[in-house]
């Protein structure tokens, strides 16, 4: 049985946390929590009107994220849902006016509040790793926003079931875009090899059933798709865009196809 000297453990933990008073009079906690670039989480302390203490990040978390990210994306679609889930599970509040995450606690529960806030900040920062190749739903949210920047929203139908197509519910079109040519544009997003194979099957089914349509395929990163899978998709698919990051190519091709 493992024996742990509780007093030694507490002393070591306390040695890593200290209270610091800044020149402007604000009180902060210096903790081991830090961002990947080495910057420590700033945790500010302030008294509440009920005699407790409020711990907050002072708005630094979102500011830190803004250095390399579009903050608005964290309040949209999948990222927004995951952020809300993270702060709810840690019982952390969010002040939208100041962009601040905070926890109110009594002095007796101060340590617990520190860990809750630290855990929430960590999970919020981890949302930066939700790139399109890891979370398909995020890719589709971003793809939809990109489409809407070119085509009016009323012309777009997401997860479209083709009327009259046998088993249409099993062959959904990611985005059906109404065109002036009378032929719909079926736009498919491909964030992975598995989706490339699935789109190949979908398109083959449409062709077999003589559906009249045009298609456009947008990859997260075409270079990550195995050559054989890409060749099969090319045989049945229309024009392709190698990456969602290819903004000029995306706008040019979609504008022409959707005209």
Topology:
Blueprint: H1 6-15, E1 18-21, E2 27-30, E3 43-47, E4 53-56, H2 60-66, H3 77-89, E5 93-95, E6 100-105, H4 110-126, H5 136-148, E7 156-160, E8 173-177, E9 185-190, H6 193-208, E10 214-219, H7 227-236, E11 239-241, H8 247-258
Parallel strand pairs: 9-10, 10-11
Antiparallel strand pairs: 1-2, 2-3, 3-4, 4-6, 5-6, 7-8, 8-9
Characterization of this structure:
- With 259 residues, the protein is an alpha+beta fold.
- The protein folds into two domains: 6-129, no CATH class; 136-258, 3-Layer(aba) Sandwich (Trna Endonuclease, Chain: A, domain 1), CATH 3.40.1350.
- It is 38% helix and 20% strand.
- It is built from eight helices and eleven strands.
- It has helices spanning 6-15, 60-66, 77-89, 110-126, 136-148, 193-208, 227-236, 247-258, and strands at 18-21, 27-30, 43-47, 53-56, 93-95, 100-105, 156-160, 173-177, 185-190, 214-219, 239-241.
- Strands 1-2-3-4-6-5 form a six-stranded antiparallel sheet, with helices on one face.
- The longest helix has 17 residues, at 110-126.
- It is elongated and about 70 Å long.
- The mean pLDDT is 85.
Overall mean pLDDT score? 85
Count of all domains: 2
Number of strands: 11
User: Which parts are unreliable, with pLDDT below 50 for 5 consecutive residues or more?
Assistant: none
Q: What class do helices, strands and sheet pairing give?
A: alpha+beta
Outline:
This protein is an alpha+beta fold and 259 residues long. It contains eight helices and eleven strands. The protein has two domains: 124 residues, no CATH class; 123 residues, Trna Endonuclease, Chain: A, domain 1 (3-Layer(aba) Sandwich).
